[in-house]
């Protein structure tokens, strides 16, 4: 076991920026107001009557404030084996790429002749994802995985409306272990949801699928492998049965990392799939940048894609509307600076690199599984299912809770005291009690993986000898345990400074 480092997070007791400074301090001096500014170019209703409510603070204090906040934010600086989301390192060179004026300063209404390079990047990423999936075309409008899943429900609706079958085909089938965005977006699109339960082998049976297929079936939506790392070997037969019933099949590729270059959705028979650029393709997620759900489909569904689509003719790229498409699902063409980062990642990896990354992801996961299952109190979902798991395995601390009274959330809090990020537990509902789902991917070193496992082992051992220290953690982090009593009280919590002032009677 490696020596656990002595960790203490920075804690500055930092106020919010709106509470800092004093009258007369300046970091920047704006120009004086324009006399008689009310002109035809500036309508009267846009002219300020009062000064903006900005803090008055000197530039060094602003710099120091945000430095303190950055020191208090671990983010991906710790070891973050964040499962079900394939969190991986975001190359710094791609951040510089996305900040170039040719990308960052482009206006969506610019003429196509002025953004040929950017349009070529988007078109080429489309071609690359076609190679990885076998689909006929990709679009990048959707703002994340759930957005791409919703786009599929919109395409499904348009497809059956064009066939005159939408009045009958009202059911979308998913599974208990599918990502929650699949049933949620299908319901949002007006479909009825059928959720198949998990069975002995870790996935629903073919008989269960057959029992719900009918002339009412519109689509099947699922991810494979699931978040337990179990791959359904009957997936081609699933697709065949849904097609025999007249439905469409959508492959949620959230867990693509372990099967990159090993399978292609279209060759399995799927009509559409999605990739998460902000996960699998090295693009930032969350605080690091907005998401992108890349949605691809077969030629049969292509007429229903949202426009504008990018076409290439003799080396010239142009945007064209799709007359029979479902219309915009988001503004313009989505977060194209993130698309450029994903294209950079694909070029840097190449076909061989992508294949190697998948191999490393599976190898690292099974190395972790061997070590984790040797720790007393740790079990895995469906332990009787043989064979190797793919890029993640869902584990359980249910036995440990029974032995010690310490929950997985307690363990999660205490692990952050050692400089690793809080581990991911599971989507709700918890099909596996007291779950945690680490995923190493290809980006973490063996030393990092070992350190993360050693921290977990140390915390679980500590809980047997000093349980109160684990329950009352974190102790070395920016904050201790917070009082949760006000989290559901709309009269107390505030997401904006103005709401905070109103609810706490702060002088404006």
Overview features:
508 residues; alpha/beta; Aspartate Aminotransferase, domain 2; seven-stranded mixed beta sheet; three-stranded antiparallel beta sheet; 14 helices; 34% helix; globular
Structure explained in plain terms:
- Helix content is 34%, strand content 10%.
- It has 508 residues and is of the alpha/beta class.
- The protein has a domain at 94-349: Type I PLP-dependent aspartate aminotransferase-like (Major domain) (Aspartate Aminotransferase, domain 2).
- A seven-stranded mixed sheet has the order 1-7-6-5-4-2-3, with helices on both faces. Strands 10-11-12 form a three-stranded antiparallel sheet, with no helix packed on it. Strands 8-9 form a two-stranded antiparallel ribbon.
- Helix 6 (181-188) links the parallel strand 2 and strand 3 (192-196).
- Helix 2 packs antiparallel against helix 9 (336-372).
- The longest helix is centred in the last third of the chain and has 37 residues, at 336-372.
- The chain is globular and about 75 Å long.
- The model has no long low-confidence stretch (mean pLDDT 92).
